[in-house]
Protein backbone atom coordinates (compact mmCIF):
# COMPACT_ATOMS: atom_id res chain seq x y z
CA UNK A 1 0.00 0.00 0.00
CA UNK A 2 1.18 3.45 -0.88
CA UNK A 3 2.36 5.58 2.04
CA UNK A 4 -0.28 8.01 3.23
CA UNK A 5 0.38 11.75 3.29
CA UNK A 6 0.40 13.94 6.39
CA UNK A 7 -2.65 16.01 7.22
CA UNK A 8 -1.94 19.32 8.91
CA UNK A 9 -4.86 20.83 10.80
CA UNK A 10 -3.93 24.49 10.46
CA UNK A 11 -5.48 27.49 12.19
CA UNK A 12 -6.22 30.11 9.55
CA UNK A 13 -6.82 32.77 12.19
CA UNK A 14 -9.59 35.37 12.11
CA UNK A 15 -9.28 36.45 8.48
CA UNK A 16 -6.41 38.95 8.15
CA UNK A 17 -3.59 36.88 6.58
CA UNK A 18 -1.12 38.98 8.58
CA UNK A 19 -2.38 37.10 11.66
CA UNK A 20 -1.37 33.68 10.33
CA UNK A 21 1.57 32.17 12.17
CA UNK A 22 4.83 31.87 10.26
CA UNK A 23 4.36 28.11 10.35
CA UNK A 24 0.80 28.25 9.02
CA UNK A 25 1.85 30.57 6.19
CA UNK A 26 4.66 28.22 5.18
CA UNK A 27 2.39 25.15 5.26
CA UNK A 28 -0.23 26.89 3.12
CA UNK A 29 2.35 28.06 0.61
CA UNK A 30 3.79 24.56 0.19
CA UNK A 31 0.64 22.44 0.38
CA UNK A 32 -0.18 19.81 -2.22
CA UNK A 33 -3.86 19.98 -1.31
CA UNK A 34 -5.97 22.35 0.79
CA UNK A 35 -9.39 21.65 2.31
CA UNK A 36 -11.10 24.78 3.62
CA UNK A 37 -14.44 26.03 4.86
CA UNK A 38 -16.33 29.30 4.69
CA UNK A 39 -14.63 30.82 7.73
CA UNK A 40 -11.29 30.87 5.91
CA UNK A 41 -10.90 34.29 4.30
CA UNK A 42 -10.32 34.90 0.59
CA UNK A 43 -7.10 36.71 1.47
CA UNK A 44 -5.73 33.56 3.11
CA UNK A 45 -6.87 31.36 0.22
CA UNK A 46 -4.94 33.59 -2.19
CA UNK A 47 -1.76 32.25 -0.60
CA UNK A 48 -2.48 28.68 -1.74
CA UNK A 49 -0.19 27.72 -4.67
CA UNK A 50 -1.84 27.57 -8.09
CA UNK A 51 -0.96 23.90 -8.54
CA UNK A 52 -2.50 22.71 -5.26
CA UNK A 53 -5.81 20.88 -5.21
CA UNK A 54 -8.46 22.96 -3.42
CA UNK A 55 -11.55 21.39 -1.86
CA UNK A 56 -14.33 23.40 -0.25
CA UNK A 57 -15.77 21.50 2.73
CA UNK A 58 -17.87 24.29 4.25
CA UNK A 59 -20.98 23.74 6.25
CA UNK A 60 -23.42 26.49 5.46
CA UNK A 61 -25.32 27.84 8.45
CA UNK A 62 -28.61 25.96 8.76
CA UNK A 63 -27.81 23.75 5.77
CA UNK A 64 -25.27 21.11 6.67
CA UNK A 65 -24.70 19.88 3.14
CA UNK A 66 -21.18 18.81 4.02
CA UNK A 67 -21.43 16.62 7.11
CA UNK A 68 -18.51 15.95 9.43
CA UNK A 69 -18.41 12.32 8.21
CA UNK A 70 -18.12 13.54 4.64
CA UNK A 71 -15.32 15.98 5.58
CA UNK A 72 -13.45 13.19 7.35
CA UNK A 73 -13.71 10.99 4.27
CA UNK A 74 -12.53 13.78 1.97
CA UNK A 75 -9.47 14.40 4.18
CA UNK A 76 -8.60 10.69 4.17
CA UNK A 77 -8.99 10.60 0.39
CA UNK A 78 -6.68 13.62 0.03
CA UNK A 79 -4.08 11.95 2.28
CA UNK A 80 -4.13 8.94 -0.08
CA UNK A 81 -3.31 11.09 -3.08
CA UNK A 82 -1.03 13.82 -1.70
CA UNK A 83 2.04 14.18 0.49
CA UNK A 84 1.14 17.35 2.36
CA UNK A 85 -2.53 18.04 2.97
CA UNK A 86 -3.52 21.25 4.77
CA UNK A 87 -6.92 21.32 6.43
CA UNK A 88 -7.50 25.04 6.96
CA UNK A 89 -9.83 26.04 9.74
CA UNK A 90 -10.92 29.56 10.67
CA UNK A 91 -9.41 30.63 13.99
CA UNK A 92 -7.83 27.77 15.92
CA UNK A 93 -8.46 24.12 14.92
CA UNK A 94 -9.03 23.06 18.54
CA UNK A 95 -11.44 25.81 19.60
CA UNK A 96 -14.92 24.96 18.25
CA UNK A 97 -13.28 23.75 15.04
CA UNK A 98 -14.10 20.04 15.48
CA UNK A 99 -10.42 19.47 14.79
CA UNK A 100 -10.33 16.82 17.48
CA UNK A 101 -12.85 14.71 15.59
CA UNK A 102 -10.90 14.98 12.34
CA UNK A 103 -7.64 14.16 14.11
CA UNK A 104 -9.16 11.08 15.78
CA UNK A 105 -10.68 9.81 12.53
CA UNK A 106 -7.48 10.28 10.52
CA UNK A 107 -5.27 8.76 13.20
CA UNK A 108 -7.56 5.73 13.33
CA UNK A 109 -6.98 5.30 9.59
CA UNK A 110 -3.21 5.47 9.92
CA UNK A 111 -2.79 9.05 8.75
CA UNK A 112 -0.16 11.18 10.46
CA UNK A 113 -1.79 14.32 11.86
CA UNK A 114 -0.07 17.54 12.89
CA UNK A 115 -1.79 20.52 14.45
CA UNK A 116 -0.73 24.14 13.98
CA UNK A 117 -2.55 26.56 16.26
CA UNK A 118 -4.15 29.76 15.04
CA UNK A 119 -5.25 33.08 16.51
CA UNK A 120 -8.74 32.42 17.76
CA UNK A 121 -11.40 35.04 17.14
CA UNK A 122 -11.61 36.03 20.82
CA UNK A 123 -7.95 37.09 20.89
CA UNK A 124 -8.15 38.84 17.52
CA UNK A 125 -11.32 40.78 18.31
CA UNK A 126 -10.04 41.71 21.77
CA UNK A 127 -6.84 43.03 20.25
CA UNK A 128 -8.46 45.16 17.54
CA UNK A 129 -11.06 46.60 19.89
CA UNK A 130 -8.66 47.21 22.76
CA UNK A 131 -10.54 44.82 25.05
CA UNK A 132 -8.31 42.71 27.31
CA UNK A 133 -9.92 39.32 27.92
CA UNK A 134 -8.61 39.34 31.48
CA UNK A 135 -8.00 42.52 33.46
CA UNK A 136 -7.11 43.31 37.06
CA UNK A 137 -10.28 44.11 38.99
CA UNK A 138 -12.57 43.36 36.06
CA UNK A 139 -12.05 39.74 35.01
CA UNK A 140 -10.05 36.99 36.73
CA UNK A 141 -10.43 34.70 33.74
CA UNK A 142 -12.08 34.16 30.39
CA UNK A 143 -14.21 31.41 28.92
CA UNK A 144 -15.28 30.49 25.43
CA UNK A 145 -18.61 28.86 24.60
CA UNK A 146 -20.56 28.42 21.40
CA UNK A 147 -24.10 29.65 20.98
CA UNK A 148 -24.62 27.28 18.09
CA UNK A 149 -27.64 24.99 18.46
CA UNK A 150 -29.45 22.84 15.91
CA UNK A 151 -32.82 24.35 15.00
CA UNK A 152 -34.87 24.99 18.13
CA UNK A 153 -32.87 22.63 20.31
CA UNK A 154 -32.23 24.05 23.78
CA UNK A 155 -28.80 25.52 24.42
CA UNK A 156 -27.26 22.82 26.54
CA UNK A 157 -25.04 24.97 28.75
CA UNK A 158 -24.44 25.22 32.48
CA UNK A 159 -26.07 28.64 32.97
CA UNK A 160 -25.39 28.84 36.67
CA UNK A 161 -21.69 28.40 36.03
CA UNK A 162 -21.74 30.77 33.05
CA UNK A 163 -23.41 33.68 34.85
CA UNK A 164 -20.18 34.66 36.60
CA UNK A 165 -19.60 38.44 36.62
CA UNK A 166 -15.86 37.99 37.32
CA UNK A 167 -15.24 36.03 34.12
CA UNK A 168 -15.24 37.36 30.58
CA UNK A 169 -17.62 35.26 28.50
CA UNK A 170 -16.86 34.97 24.80
CA UNK A 171 -19.60 33.49 22.64
CA UNK A 172 -18.75 32.08 19.22
CA UNK A 173 -21.57 31.74 16.67
CA UNK A 174 -24.06 33.17 19.16
CA UNK A 175 -26.01 35.61 17.01
CA UNK A 176 -28.93 33.30 16.15
CA UNK A 177 -29.45 32.17 19.74
CA UNK A 178 -28.65 35.52 21.39
CA UNK A 179 -32.22 36.19 22.64
CA UNK A 180 -32.23 32.86 24.52
CA UNK A 181 -28.60 33.21 25.58
CA UNK A 182 -29.05 36.65 27.13
CA UNK A 183 -32.33 35.65 28.80
CA UNK A 184 -30.68 32.62 30.41
CA UNK A 185 -27.68 34.61 31.61
CA UNK A 186 -29.83 37.40 33.07
CA UNK A 187 -32.17 34.83 34.59
CA UNK A 188 -29.20 33.26 36.35
CA UNK A 189 -28.01 36.53 37.81
CA UNK A 190 -25.75 38.28 35.32
CA UNK A 191 -26.74 41.99 35.41
CA UNK A 192 -28.61 43.15 32.30
CA UNK A 193 -26.32 46.17 32.03
CA UNK A 194 -23.26 43.92 31.59
CA UNK A 195 -21.37 45.36 28.61
CA UNK A 196 -21.36 43.35 25.38
CA UNK A 197 -19.05 43.97 22.45
CA UNK A 198 -20.16 42.43 19.16
CA UNK A 199 -17.64 42.06 16.32
CA UNK A 200 -18.73 40.89 12.90
CA UNK A 201 -16.09 39.73 10.38
CA UNK A 202 -13.31 40.74 12.79
CA UNK A 203 -9.97 41.78 11.21
CA UNK A 204 -11.40 41.65 7.67
CA UNK A 205 -12.26 44.64 5.44
CA UNK A 206 -15.94 44.03 6.29
CA UNK A 207 -15.40 44.28 10.06
CA UNK A 208 -18.18 45.90 12.13
CA UNK A 209 -18.40 46.50 15.86
CA UNK A 210 -21.10 47.49 18.30
CA UNK A 211 -20.94 48.09 22.04
CA UNK A 212 -24.21 47.28 23.78
CA UNK A 213 -25.47 45.61 26.96
CA UNK A 214 -26.65 42.10 27.74
CA UNK A 215 -30.23 43.29 28.11
CA UNK A 216 -30.24 45.20 24.82
CA UNK A 217 -27.87 43.12 22.71
CA UNK A 218 -30.44 40.95 20.92
CA UNK A 219 -32.50 43.94 19.75
CA UNK A 220 -29.56 46.27 19.07
CA UNK A 221 -27.74 43.72 16.92
CA UNK A 222 -30.92 42.84 15.03
CA UNK A 223 -31.62 46.51 14.29
CA UNK A 224 -28.03 47.06 13.25
CA UNK A 225 -28.38 44.01 10.98
CA UNK A 226 -25.42 42.10 12.32
CA UNK A 227 -24.83 38.83 10.48
CA UNK A 228 -22.70 35.74 11.18
CA UNK A 229 -19.84 35.37 11.77
CA UNK A 230 -20.23 37.61 14.82
CA UNK A 231 -18.31 37.18 18.05
CA UNK A 232 -19.72 38.39 21.37
CA UNK A 233 -17.50 39.49 24.26
CA UNK A 234 -19.64 39.70 27.38
CA UNK A 235 -18.35 41.16 30.63
CA UNK A 236 -17.00 44.23 32.37
CA UNK A 237 -13.92 44.36 30.15
CA UNK A 238 -16.08 45.04 27.08
CA UNK A 239 -16.69 48.55 28.44
CA UNK A 240 -12.99 49.29 27.86
CA UNK A 241 -13.74 49.28 24.12
CA UNK A 242 -14.87 52.87 24.77
CA UNK A 243 -11.32 54.04 25.44
CA UNK A 244 -11.00 56.50 22.54
CA UNK A 245 -7.39 55.69 21.67
CA UNK A 246 -8.20 52.06 21.04
CA UNK A 247 -11.84 51.92 20.00
CA UNK A 248 -12.87 51.84 16.36
CA UNK A 249 -15.21 54.31 14.74
CA UNK A 250 -18.74 53.05 14.16
CA UNK A 251 -18.74 51.35 10.79
CA UNK A 252 -21.45 53.52 9.30
CA UNK A 253 -20.08 52.81 5.85
CA UNK A 254 -20.52 49.05 6.15
CA UNK A 255 -22.63 47.89 3.20
CA UNK A 256 -25.51 46.45 5.20
CA UNK A 257 -25.49 48.76 8.22
CA UNK A 258 -28.54 50.99 8.27
CA UNK A 259 -28.09 53.62 11.03
CA UNK A 260 -24.65 54.26 12.57
CA UNK A 261 -23.88 51.65 15.18
CA UNK A 262 -23.06 54.10 17.97
CA UNK A 263 -26.38 55.89 17.65
CA UNK A 264 -28.10 52.56 18.14
CA UNK A 265 -25.96 51.58 21.06
CA UNK A 266 -26.92 54.69 22.98
CA UNK A 267 -30.48 55.12 21.65
CA UNK B 1 6.64 68.80 22.42
CA UNK B 2 8.13 66.05 20.34
CA UNK B 3 5.65 63.56 18.90
CA UNK B 4 5.43 60.34 20.90
CA UNK B 5 6.16 56.98 19.31
CA UNK B 6 3.67 54.14 18.95
CA UNK B 7 3.76 51.27 21.43
CA UNK B 8 2.81 47.89 20.01
CA UNK B 9 1.74 45.31 22.58
CA UNK B 10 2.78 42.18 20.72
CA UNK B 11 2.02 38.58 21.57
CA UNK B 12 5.28 36.62 21.40
CA UNK B 13 3.42 33.31 21.49
CA UNK B 14 4.48 30.25 23.49
CA UNK B 15 8.19 30.23 22.64
CA UNK B 16 8.69 28.66 19.22
CA UNK B 17 9.34 31.65 16.90
CA UNK B 18 7.56 29.73 14.13
CA UNK B 19 4.34 30.39 16.07
CA UNK B 20 4.68 34.18 15.87
CA UNK B 21 2.15 35.80 13.57
CA UNK B 22 3.48 37.33 10.36
CA UNK B 23 2.58 40.73 11.80
CA UNK B 24 4.39 40.14 15.07
CA UNK B 25 7.52 38.93 13.26
CA UNK B 26 7.55 42.04 11.08
CA UNK B 27 7.07 44.37 14.05
CA UNK B 28 9.90 42.68 15.98
CA UNK B 29 12.23 42.84 13.00
CA UNK B 30 11.63 46.57 12.48
CA UNK B 31 11.39 47.77 16.08
CA UNK B 32 13.39 50.73 17.36
CA UNK B 33 13.06 49.47 20.93
CA UNK B 34 11.88 46.22 22.50
CA UNK B 35 10.73 45.70 26.10
CA UNK B 36 10.42 42.03 27.03
CA UNK B 37 9.96 39.76 30.02
CA UNK B 38 11.14 36.30 31.00
CA UNK B 39 8.33 34.47 29.18
CA UNK B 40 9.65 35.68 25.82
CA UNK B 41 11.94 32.97 24.44
CA UNK B 42 15.57 33.48 23.45
CA UNK B 43 14.71 32.31 19.94
CA UNK B 44 12.21 35.16 19.56
CA UNK B 45 14.65 37.71 21.01
CA UNK B 46 17.23 36.69 18.41
CA UNK B 47 14.95 38.27 15.80
CA UNK B 48 15.32 41.74 17.32
CA UNK B 49 17.59 43.93 15.15
CA UNK B 50 21.07 44.58 16.52
CA UNK B 51 20.52 48.34 16.57
CA UNK B 52 17.31 48.25 18.62
CA UNK B 53 17.30 49.21 22.29
CA UNK B 54 16.42 46.17 24.42
CA UNK B 55 14.97 46.52 27.92
CA UNK B 56 14.27 43.56 30.20
CA UNK B 57 11.16 44.25 32.30
CA UNK B 58 10.63 40.77 33.71
CA UNK B 59 8.98 40.03 36.99
CA UNK B 60 10.71 37.09 38.56
CA UNK B 61 8.41 34.63 40.28
CA UNK B 62 8.10 35.56 43.94
CA UNK B 63 10.38 38.58 43.50
CA UNK B 64 8.56 41.43 41.84
CA UNK B 65 11.60 43.62 41.36
CA UNK B 66 10.04 45.19 38.32
CA UNK B 67 6.57 46.40 39.36
CA UNK B 68 3.79 47.10 36.88
CA UNK B 69 4.12 50.83 37.64
CA UNK B 70 7.79 50.68 36.77
CA UNK B 71 7.08 48.81 33.52
CA UNK B 72 4.46 51.39 32.56
CA UNK B 73 6.96 54.20 33.15
CA UNK B 74 9.66 52.45 31.12
CA UNK B 75 7.26 52.00 28.18
CA UNK B 76 6.29 55.68 28.30
CA UNK B 77 9.94 56.66 28.41
CA UNK B 78 10.68 54.44 25.38
CA UNK B 79 7.78 56.03 23.47
CA UNK B 80 9.34 59.45 24.14
CA UNK B 81 12.63 58.38 22.56
CA UNK B 82 11.63 56.00 19.76
CA UNK B 83 9.17 55.83 16.87
CA UNK B 84 8.24 52.15 17.07
CA UNK B 85 8.31 50.49 20.47
CA UNK B 86 7.47 46.79 20.73
CA UNK B 87 6.34 45.51 24.10
CA UNK B 88 6.77 41.74 23.75
CA UNK B 89 4.64 39.54 25.94
CA UNK B 90 4.73 35.76 26.15
CA UNK B 91 1.56 34.25 24.68
CA UNK B 92 -1.18 36.81 24.04
CA UNK B 93 -0.99 40.34 25.50
CA UNK B 94 -4.63 40.29 26.60
CA UNK B 95 -4.68 36.87 28.30
CA UNK B 96 -3.11 37.22 31.76
CA UNK B 97 -0.53 39.56 30.25
CA UNK B 98 -1.69 42.73 32.03
CA UNK B 99 -1.66 44.28 28.59
CA UNK B 100 -4.88 46.11 29.37
CA UNK B 101 -3.20 47.99 32.20
CA UNK B 102 -0.28 49.02 30.03
CA UNK B 103 -2.60 50.09 27.22
CA UNK B 104 -4.72 52.20 29.60
CA UNK B 105 -1.69 53.88 31.15
CA UNK B 106 -0.08 54.70 27.81
CA UNK B 107 -3.32 55.95 26.26
CA UNK B 108 -3.84 58.22 29.28
CA UNK B 109 -0.42 59.72 28.54
CA UNK B 110 -1.20 60.34 24.89
CA UNK B 111 0.70 57.38 23.47
CA UNK B 112 -0.81 55.54 20.52
CA UNK B 113 -1.22 51.86 21.38
CA UNK B 114 -1.72 48.97 18.97
CA UNK B 115 -2.28 45.38 19.97
CA UNK B 116 -1.12 42.34 17.99
CA UNK B 117 -2.53 39.07 19.30
CA UNK B 118 -0.38 36.01 19.92
CA UNK B 119 -0.88 32.27 20.23
CA UNK B 120 -1.76 31.77 23.86
CA UNK B 121 -0.20 28.85 25.70
CA UNK B 122 -3.48 26.92 25.92
CA UNK B 123 -3.81 26.76 22.13
CA UNK B 124 -0.14 25.94 21.62
CA UNK B 125 -0.01 23.18 24.23
CA UNK B 126 -3.30 21.72 23.02
CA UNK B 127 -1.97 21.59 19.48
CA UNK B 128 1.36 19.94 20.28
CA UNK B 129 -0.21 17.37 22.61
CA UNK B 130 -3.18 16.63 20.35
CA UNK B 131 -5.67 17.84 22.95
CA UNK B 132 -8.64 19.75 21.51
CA UNK B 133 -9.80 22.41 23.99
CA UNK B 134 -13.40 21.76 22.97
CA UNK B 135 -14.65 18.41 21.72
CA UNK B 136 -18.04 16.95 20.92
CA UNK B 137 -19.30 14.97 23.90
CA UNK B 138 -16.34 15.90 26.10
CA UNK B 139 -16.23 19.69 26.46
CA UNK B 140 -18.80 22.28 25.37
CA UNK B 141 -16.40 25.12 26.10
CA UNK B 142 -13.06 26.10 27.58
CA UNK B 143 -12.00 28.57 30.24
CA UNK B 144 -8.70 30.08 31.23
CA UNK B 145 -7.81 31.05 34.80
CA UNK B 146 -4.58 31.86 36.54
CA UNK B 147 -3.39 29.98 39.60
CA UNK B 148 -1.08 32.84 40.49
CA UNK B 149 -1.53 34.20 44.02
CA UNK B 150 0.67 36.44 46.11
CA UNK B 151 2.35 34.47 48.92
CA UNK B 152 -0.25 32.60 50.95
CA UNK B 153 -3.18 34.72 49.79
CA UNK B 154 -6.28 32.65 49.09
CA UNK B 155 -7.01 31.89 45.45
CA UNK B 156 -9.91 34.23 44.83
CA UNK B 157 -11.84 32.17 42.30
CA UNK B 158 -15.46 31.10 41.93
CA UNK B 159 -14.92 27.40 42.65
CA UNK B 160 -18.53 26.39 42.23
CA UNK B 161 -18.53 27.83 38.73
CA UNK B 162 -15.09 26.37 37.94
CA UNK B 163 -15.93 22.80 38.94
CA UNK B 164 -17.83 22.17 35.71
CA UNK B 165 -17.05 18.75 34.18
CA UNK B 166 -18.34 19.85 30.76
CA UNK B 167 -15.80 22.66 30.41
CA UNK B 168 -12.07 22.32 29.81
CA UNK B 169 -10.23 24.28 32.49
CA UNK B 170 -6.84 25.68 31.55
CA UNK B 171 -4.72 26.99 34.40
CA UNK B 172 -1.86 29.39 33.69
CA UNK B 173 0.88 29.73 36.30
CA UNK B 174 -0.83 27.18 38.52
CA UNK B 175 2.06 24.99 39.63
CA UNK B 176 2.75 26.70 42.96
CA UNK B 177 -0.89 26.72 44.02
CA UNK B 178 -1.82 23.35 42.52
CA UNK B 179 -2.38 21.58 45.86
CA UNK B 180 -4.96 24.20 46.88
CA UNK B 181 -6.41 24.44 43.38
CA UNK B 182 -7.04 20.72 43.04
CA UNK B 183 -8.43 20.45 46.58
CA UNK B 184 -10.91 23.27 45.90
CA UNK B 185 -12.01 21.77 42.58
CA UNK B 186 -12.48 18.29 44.04
CA UNK B 187 -14.22 19.78 47.07
CA UNK B 188 -16.69 21.48 44.75
CA UNK B 189 -17.51 18.31 42.87
CA UNK B 190 -15.00 17.82 40.05
CA UNK B 191 -14.09 14.10 40.05
CA UNK B 192 -10.58 13.38 41.34
CA UNK B 193 -9.94 11.14 38.33
CA UNK B 194 -10.44 14.06 35.94
CA UNK B 195 -7.49 13.91 33.50
CA UNK B 196 -4.85 16.63 33.78
CA UNK B 197 -2.20 17.34 31.16
CA UNK B 198 0.78 19.38 32.38
CA UNK B 199 3.07 21.02 29.84
CA UNK B 200 6.26 22.76 30.93
CA UNK B 201 8.04 25.11 28.50
CA UNK B 202 5.58 24.16 25.75
CA UNK B 203 6.88 24.39 22.14
CA UNK B 204 10.46 25.08 23.28
CA UNK B 205 13.41 22.66 23.18
CA UNK B 206 12.95 22.14 26.95
CA UNK B 207 9.32 21.08 26.63
CA UNK B 208 8.05 18.39 29.04
CA UNK B 209 4.63 16.81 29.39
CA UNK B 210 2.87 14.64 31.92
CA UNK B 211 -0.60 13.16 31.89
CA UNK B 212 -2.01 12.71 35.38
CA UNK B 213 -5.29 13.18 37.27
CA UNK B 214 -6.69 15.99 39.36
CA UNK B 215 -6.30 13.96 42.54
CA UNK B 216 -2.69 13.01 41.80
CA UNK B 217 -1.44 16.04 39.89
CA UNK B 218 0.13 17.95 42.79
CA UNK B 219 2.22 14.98 43.93
CA UNK B 220 3.01 13.64 40.44
CA UNK B 221 4.26 17.01 39.18
CA UNK B 222 6.30 17.59 42.32
CA UNK B 223 7.96 14.17 42.00
CA UNK B 224 8.62 14.75 38.33
CA UNK B 225 10.13 18.12 39.28
CA UNK B 226 7.99 20.24 37.03
CA UNK B 227 8.94 23.93 37.15
CA UNK B 228 7.27 27.14 35.95
CA UNK B 229 6.22 27.98 33.34
CA UNK B 230 3.85 25.01 33.37
CA UNK B 231 0.38 25.01 31.87
CA UNK B 232 -2.35 22.69 33.17
CA UNK B 233 -5.18 21.43 30.96
CA UNK B 234 -7.85 19.93 33.21
CA UNK B 235 -10.82 18.04 31.83
CA UNK B 236 -11.98 15.02 29.87
CA UNK B 237 -10.21 16.19 26.70
CA UNK B 238 -6.82 15.83 28.39
CA UNK B 239 -7.23 12.05 28.17
CA UNK B 240 -6.99 12.37 24.36
CA UNK B 241 -3.30 13.18 24.83
CA UNK B 242 -2.92 9.41 25.03
CA UNK B 243 -3.77 8.96 21.37
CA UNK B 244 -0.46 7.46 20.27
CA UNK B 245 -0.32 9.30 16.94
CA UNK B 246 -0.38 12.66 18.60
CA UNK B 247 1.08 12.24 22.05
CA UNK B 248 4.71 13.00 22.79
CA UNK B 249 7.15 10.54 24.24
CA UNK B 250 7.92 11.03 27.91
CA UNK B 251 10.83 13.42 28.09
CA UNK B 252 13.09 11.10 30.05
CA UNK B 253 16.08 13.00 28.72
CA UNK B 254 14.96 16.36 30.12
CA UNK B 255 17.82 17.75 32.21
CA UNK B 256 15.93 17.97 35.50
CA UNK B 257 13.55 15.04 35.11
CA UNK B 258 14.44 12.22 37.45
CA UNK B 259 12.33 9.15 36.56
CA UNK B 260 10.54 8.98 33.19
CA UNK B 261 7.28 10.91 33.29
CA UNK B 262 5.12 8.07 32.03
CA UNK B 263 6.26 5.70 34.75
CA UNK B 264 5.21 8.30 37.29
CA UNK B 265 1.88 8.93 35.66
CA UNK B 266 0.85 5.33 35.94
CA UNK B 267 2.71 4.47 39.16
Short précis:
The structure is a homodimer of 267-residue chains. The first copy, chain A, has 267 residues and is of the alpha/beta class. Helix content of chain A is 27%, strand content 20%.
Structural features, described:
2 copies of one chain form a homodimer. Chain A folds into 2 domains: 6-116, Cobalt-precorrin-4 Transmethylase, domain 1, CATH 3.40.1010; 121-265, Methyltransferase, Cobalt-precorrin-4 Transmethylase, Domain 2 (2-Layer Sandwich), CATH 3.30.950.10. The first copy, chain A, starts with 5 loop residues before the first strand and ends with a helix. Chain A is elongated and about 60 Å long. In chain A, helix 3 (68-81) packs across helix 4. With 267 residues, chain A is an alpha/beta fold. A 5-stranded parallel sheet of chain A has the order 3-2-4-1-5, with helices on both faces. Chain A contains 9 helices and 10 strands. Helices cover 27% and strands 20% of the residues of chain A. Chain A has helices at 22-29, 42-45, 68-81, 99-108, 121-129, 159-162, 178-187, 217-223, 261-265; strands at residues 6-11, 33-36, 53-56, 84-89, 112-116, 141-146, 167-172, 195-200, 208-213, 230-234. At the A-B interface, helix 1, helix 4, strand 5, helix 5 and strand 6 of A face helix 1, helix 4, strand 5, helix 5 and strand 6 of B. Chains A, B: Belongs to the precorrin methyltransferase family. Chains A, B: InterPro entries: 4pyrrol_Mease, 4pyrrol_Methylase_sf, 4pyrrole_Mease_sub1, 4pyrrole_Mease_sub2, CobA/CysG_C, Siro_Cobalamin_biosynth, Uropor_MeTrfase_CS. Chains A, B: Its EC number is 2.1.1.107. Chains A, B: Residues 6-217 form the Tetrapyrrole methylase domain. Chains A, B: It holds the Pfam family TP_methylase.
Amino acid sequence: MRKLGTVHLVGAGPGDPDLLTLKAARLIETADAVAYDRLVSDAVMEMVPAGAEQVFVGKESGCHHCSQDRINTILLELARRHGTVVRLKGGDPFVFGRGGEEAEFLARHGVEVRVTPGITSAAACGAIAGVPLTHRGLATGVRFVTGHAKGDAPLDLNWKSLADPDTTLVVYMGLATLPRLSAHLIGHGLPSDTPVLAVQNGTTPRERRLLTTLGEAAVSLALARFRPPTLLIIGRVAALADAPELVAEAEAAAPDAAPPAVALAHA
